[in-house]
Amino acid sequence: ELAGRAAIVTGSTSGIGLGIARVLASRGAAIVLNGFGPVDAIMKEVNAISAEFGVGVRYDDADMSKPDDIARMIAAAEDHFGAVDILVNNAGIQYVAPIDEFPPEKWDQVIAINLSGAFHAMRAAARGMKSRGSGRIVNIASAHGLVGSPFKSAYTAAKHGLIGLTKVAALELAEQGITVNAVCPGYVWTPLVEKQIDDQARSHGIPREQVVRDVLLKKQPNKRFSTVEEIGGVVAFLCSKDAASITGTSISVDGGWTAE
Ligand code: NAD
Questions:
Q1: What is the pTM of this model?
Q2: Its family (predicted)?
Q3: Residue 36 and residue 24 in contact, taking contact as beta carbons nearer than 8 Å
């Protein structure tokens, strides 16, 4: 159903972004993978997605904290595929520390990648979408776009900001056939979560197993991590024709976390 469309998924060399890219490719979209990692592993993924789903796949190493890189990536994708029909702003990092010990450079980095990167990408991609009178933008926020948790000041601020940005862009682009929505995952099993377990253990002063049980899944009423395929499925739905009237909103995929 997405055949003939081209999608950029930022931060898609790993975790949720890779899951989203694979689901969009499975529906027929051509894909720009983006993110960091060993180039040979990334090229293997490019070839695997292309072979498995028969779609065009490119890799772009744009650093989402660098506005010039982002503008270049959007222009290159438009050049290569003729358009960017779908933009998924997924690249994100986490940093966990008490606010009075939070390193200012980490604050800047989290805001740059998780919030400003999405702005620069939307800014660059919206022009082409407007000229074609169609487009889909999906911002991967978080349950932390709706509620807070201790030690996640920068992340929570960035994700709340991303939801605000989603609303404004949706309002501006609504008459041009472009929808802009946010997806708010709870805990999804990815390298980002795995890495956090150690940081959380240090901040709370408790062992790893206890972090998983009492800190992470404590918030998630269904007591399981979501899968990257589940997040990809929601993104694909938002990109479909059925979702044409859904804009400016956020969809929680959090096992009930934010219902409490
Ligand atoms: P991950 O660490 O597995 O993947 C992050 C991706 O972003 C990687 O491909 C990485 O290379 C890329 N990336 C990092 N910095 C970048 C930069 N400067 N420029 C370009 N790419 C960069 O993380 P994940 O868990 O898959 O998270 C993806 C998104 O989902 C993030 O925005 C995160 O905040 C959000 N999220 C994750 C969870 C979760 O439980 N994992 C929950 C809610 C929201």
A1: 0.95
A2: Belongs to the short-chain dehydrogenases/reductases (SDR) family.
A3: no
